[in-house]
Amino acid sequence: MNTPLYSRPLHLRAGSLLFSPGQECPGFVRLNAGTIRVSLSGENGREVVLYRVAPGELCLQTFSCLLDGRTYSAEGRAETDIDGEILSHGAFQRLLADDAGFRADVFRAVAERFSDYEQLVEEVALTGFDARLARVLIRLATHNVLQTTHESLAAETASGRAFVSRRLAEFERRGIITRRRGEIEILDFDGLGRIAQETG
Predict the structure, then answer these.
(1) CATH number at residue 67
(2) How many CB atoms lie within 10 A of CB 85?
(3) At a CB cut-off of 8 Å and minimum separation 6, what does 86 contact?
(4) Which of 55, 58, 135, 146 could link 109 by a cystine bridge, Cβ 3.0 to 4.6 Å?
(5) Can you give the three-state secondary structure of 171-184, one letter per residue?
(6) 86-119: string of b/e by CB count within 10 Å (b at 16+)?
(7) How many other CB atoms sit within 10 Å of the CB of residue 74?
(8) For residue 110, which of 79, 146, 64 has the smallest C-alpha distance?
(9) What is the pTM of this model?
(10) Contact 61/38 with Cβ under 8 angstroms?
């Protein structure tokens, strides 16, 4: 399965584009290390992060393209340096048909990815924005610091940059965070956690 007949190595630096809307699928991506960020952009330029792909996880965009022969409708970009392989269409189809373990892993990953989509829809439709923003800050923080921009947080929360900026300013006024250029420091994790639990 690891011969050139079946797969080819995948090595990309952080920030590299893996696929974009309208592109044909080169094969089934299996990651050994790193993270792929999959996002969708509207005609107005607003971006929404759909999900991330880590080792052992599945890219639903790629899976759909392989099964239906469609082109990509979203963008996939290496969020960190990534290392893995791309299985050819033929190798993927043979493994799916003949390898019960591979098939079970794929279907489990599909189910988990649909669960992620359900959570995204629920948060956007049913969760207040402050709670959604607080959850993103907690999830993305390394220790108590995030290297991020307001544009990136807008994509993570399916909102606009100006609204993110206003709510971050309010969080800062309340002593929960402090902002610096390209960086946010969390000063009160407990307070941020309470906001993240709000349902209204």
Answers:
(1) 2.60.120.10
(2) 19
(3) 7, 8, 10, 26, 27, 28, 29, 30
(4) 58
(5) HHHCCCEEEECCEE
(6) bbbeebbeebeeeeeebeeebeebeeebeeeeee
(7) 18
(8) 64
(9) 0.70
(10) yes
Q: Would you give per-residue pLDDT tens digits along the chain (200 residues)?
A: 444 458 899 999 999 999 999 999 989 999 999 999 999 887 777 788 888 999 988 888 888 888 888 899 999 999 999 999 999 988 998 998 999 999 998 988 888 888 777 777 777 766 788 998 999 999 888 888 998 889 889 888 888 888 899 999 999 999 999 999 889 999 999 999 999 888 65
Number of domains in the chain: 2
* 1 within some domain: no
Residue 168: give its domain's CATH number.
1.10.10.10
Query: Of 72, 104, 125, which closes a domain?
Result: 125
Q: What span, in angstroms and rounded, lies between the C-alpha atoms of 133 and 198? A: 11
Q: Which domain holds residue 55?
A: 7-125
One domain, residues 116 and 188: no
Q: Which amino acid is at 65?
A: C
Same-domain check for residues 12 and 87 = yes
